[in-house]
Design brief:
Layout: E1 13-15, E2 22-23, E3 30-34, E4 39-41, E5 47-58, E6 61-70, E7 76-78, H1 79-84, E8 87-91, E9 95-100, E10 106-113, E11 116-119, H2 121-124, E12 130-132, E13 134-135, H3 138-147, H4 153-162, E14 171-172, H5 180-186, E15 207-212, E16 225-231, E17 237-242, H6 248-263, E18 269-272, H7 281-290, E19 293-296, H8 306-326, H9 333-344, H10 357-362, E20 377-381, E21 393-401, E22 408-412, E23 417-421, E24 424-427, E25 501-505, H11 580-584, H12 587-602, E26 606-609, E27 617-618, E28 620-628, E29 634-643, H13 664-677, E30 681-686, E31 700-701, E32 716-719, H14 729-743, E33 747-748, E34 755-760, E35 763-770, E36 773-778, H15 781-794, E37 797-802, E38 805-806, E39 809-814, E40 817-821, H16 823-832, H17 862-875, H18 883-890, H19 898-913, E41 917-922, E42 929-935, E43 947-954, E44 957-965, H20 973-996, E45 1005-1009, H21 1012-1019, H22 1036-1043, E46 1046-1050, H23 1067-1076, E47 1079-1081
Parallel strand pairs: 1-7, 2-6, 6-12, 13-14, 15-18, 18-19, 27-31, 42-45, 45-46
Antiparallel strand pairs: 1-11, 3-5, 4-5, 5-6, 8-9, 9-10, 10-11, 15-16, 16-17, 20-21, 20-24, 21-22, 22-23, 23-25, 26-32, 28-29, 30-36, 30-37, 31-32, 33-34, 34-35, 35-36, 38-39, 39-40, 40-41, 41-47, 42-43, 43-44
Helix pairs in contact: 5-8, 8-9, 17-18, 20-21
Amino acid sequence: MQGTGRKSKVVWVLDSGCSRHMTGEKSLLTDVVMRTGPIVIFGDDSKGFTTGYGKLKVGNVIIEDISLVEGLKHNLLSISQFCDKGYDVIFQKEVCLIQNRKNKDLTLRGVRKSSLFIADIDSASKGEVKCFYTKASADDSWLWHRKLSHLNFKTMNSLVKRELVRGLPQKEFCQEGLCDACEKGKSKKASHRSKGMTDIGSPLQLIHMDLFGPVNIPSISRKRYALVIVDDYSKYTWVLFLHSKDEAALVIIDHIKKIEKEADLPVRAIRSDNGTEFRNAVLNDFCTDKGISRQYSAPRTPQQNGVVERKNRTLIEAARTMISQSRLPIYFWAEAVSTACYTQNRTLINKDLDKTPYEVMANRKPSLSYFHVFGAKCFVLKEEHLGKFDAKAEEGIFLGYSLESKAYRVYLINDDKLIESINVRFDDTKLPSLQKENESDSLEFENLEDIYLGEDQPEADIREPNTNEGNADPEPSGGSIGNNTNDHHGHSGQSGGSSNRIYISSGGVSQSGSTSHHTQHNYDFGESSRLNLPRQRVWSRDHPVEQIIGDPDTGVQTRRATQNECNFAGFLSQTEPKKVEEALSDPDWVSAMQEELNQFERQKVWKLVPRPKGKSIVGTRWVFRNKLDEDGIVTRNKARLVAKGYSQEEGIDYDETYAPVARLEAIRMFLAFAAHSNFKVYQMDVKSAFLNGDLEEEVYVEQPPGFEDKEFEDFVYFLFKALYGLKQAPRTWYDTLSKFLLENGFTRGIIDKTLFHKKHKDDIILVQVYVDDIIFGSTNDLLCERFAKLMQSKYEMSMMGELSFFLGLQVIQKPDGIFICQSKYIKDLLKKYGMEEASTAKTPMPTAVKLDQDKSGKSVDITKYRGMIGSLLYLTASRPDIMFATCLCARFQADPKESHLIAVKRIFRYLKGTPNLGIWYPKDTGFNLVGYTDSDFAGCKIDRKSTSGSCQFLGRRLVSWYSKKQHSVSTSTAEAEYIAAGSCCAQILWMRNQLQDYGLMLDKIPILCDNTSAIAIANNPVQHSRTKHIDIRYHFLREHVMNGTVELHFVPTDQQIADIFTKPLDESTFSRLVGELGMLNMSN
């Protein structure tokens, strides 16, 4: 090729005597890894040194594991290496053929030139992709098969050959034998191919949806239905789990809004069957407003909705397969569906686009490097305080990937909890089963069409239809469960910065509101020091060790040495035991436990009976708490025996659990009315209130730990009354109490079901119930005395007297009014976070501060930051002056920086200077309801959304307030103020309805706003172009203005009290508004 001016052609020789593929030209290789290898001996006995390894990529031909040999003048392809990788090599007179040993497909051809065979790579590169990868071992092949939720081997190899994902080993995966779990979970009838064409050209142009269920065994969050949604273009799939069908419409609406925002594309059409969950007025109105067309399949023709019908079946196949492989209880089916769906969205291949669904939606290749086998054994790092020799990790079972954070979902075997954590180490080769062979319940699905159109369907356009994507079953988080396109999830390792988060308690029953028993493990770490050995003692028959009270090792204390101690300290324990063994060794706690059990006998809570067959037995445990007064002094040791309610099953052990609970605004409204009516408020605590609730269900519990009957150890207790910890306990207590009050002439509130009132001539008595705490007051003290006697005649009281401390609020009743504060809690917070010696601040936030994400800032301890924010939010129950600053800092809890922590500490410094500041409710003043509303404009530096602020007064008494970022971006100050006024109106209407139970009927309630344009919009009933973009839910304000329920009035900006809830203010303005809120600095 000399003198031709053209680039020399690269020649690769097929050499039967060469032990490995090799070349001397580094420029011919890609993905080169420099690593010293074996020495190569050339034909002239000279030596070459292997300096690295790489891949050869020519068009669609990819040959891996080629050695880079220093000094080699030729490019050689080893025949023996091809044979080792599963290829047959056939030499003929003029050609050499390299074909796949399995299917006999011709992969590469060599042409004879003189005495050498030259590889014809250029011709081979024009066909489909050909990859000469190292054959993976059988163990590796099956391991990745399980990691990818039992994906078939053809699709796995396609992912490798086409380089559609990251993190998957560049090897050829081979199926040797059958997968038992796949045969059990995916066996099906012979399929029939369908033909069809589609004109869909972008994501979300058409989405398919269907609902399957109810499942015979509910998930761990008590859900029985699954809503499957498939994007026709990308084949990206979402699954949302439901309790019942009637939830579907609202869930679909929320999900469509979410995916439209994430993809920045509109949903144009929805295809579904004719079920009422899809064909209803709510969903029809939404689609009409959004311009979404509806397509329905013909009755009894599920094939017309075949895309999502196949998804239903493949989801169930995936669940059966993974549950069978992991041998987990069936109630983990939703976790299995979620994990399979998550992996398949990142591994299935769209034929038309030659990409995975994830890459189509996210515009980047997914990573599989952090994938693990569902049900695999793992260890989670403990992050709580540990003893010197406590184990640092807990054993768990891997159940999937978090959709809310970069973390794994792990079931802790000993704690019986499901948590999310990043600090996890995995052993994918071990599956710690939770059930024995042949003891699993069968998984049955109703409302599932028995159709299957085959693996090669144009509707699906996906090569492997075995699994789809769902979302983990998150009950406490709320909201939709859609899968985002962010591929940043947890990786195994010891990375710090993220704490373990308890997500749900399991046991197959419930995900929230239950108490789990945490088993402690005691390990023997060898011999201890002789100095720590206990002294040897000899006990006489008349003085056994069981009768000793206290610690025998404690030294003798004389009266003089203890004369300065509190007189009552000898009668109460100052510590809270963590385990029942510790409590049994303390006589004070033994007395407390005996008092609890005596209460059971007095109220005839239970009866000891033989253990019934076929009945669910609920476990019990002790909870120990020290009751403190407002000064932090222990006043009572309370031992509570509770049931392990998380093991109950809905419909079997209980039916209904909901019990009304009063809102904090309702409590403040009660106190404001008491101040207005000039009467004193009292409180009472019903002793073991839940033990008074009569059970309708048949419930059995284990004997209390430490107090088992030695003669009847296998007996259990049959419950007549509700026990703390049972799912139905709050409901039964509320029903029992409300029935008793109604029978004695009280009337239940129409709006607030926790408020009871009774009139006697011109006087009234009000009773507010908050679970087992009751506050009451009357315009006639005689009525209070009668009520107290009435309650004492029915229930045993543990506390009764004037209201002074309720729900963490300190209430001081004075002759001229009522004062509410949390000064003790503030002192505790300052001590907890080391701010006692900090300098004070005049305002909670400086006017110059402009908080944003501060991506380049230094990260801080996220657990501490969230703890501080949570404490401040609790404090806002009586401190509206810190509401805006706290809510602003709360926006950065996901990734707090040092600048955010400085802002939070500024709030603490302000609290240090104003610990006794609180809300003052004066007596003998008016009781008219008035609201103030305000908003800033585009105040958030992240998304430019505005902040609404509002407060409501009853006379001069501040009852309700809030500061909240708006849901949408406002295009003008008028729009922002109008939205804020709508939110204020909603709160006003709730208070108006609540006051009806107090006998007050209010109309033409004034709402004061400092924006004339917003007032004009509210007073104008005509919908015009300037307001049509405002969300319709805010226009209800117009209706109530027209009806005369509320009135909007203008107030000058300098008199707008709600200004304190929307922006940081200077010291003089802030102090003035704090005073106008009715806050006083009063020392106890």
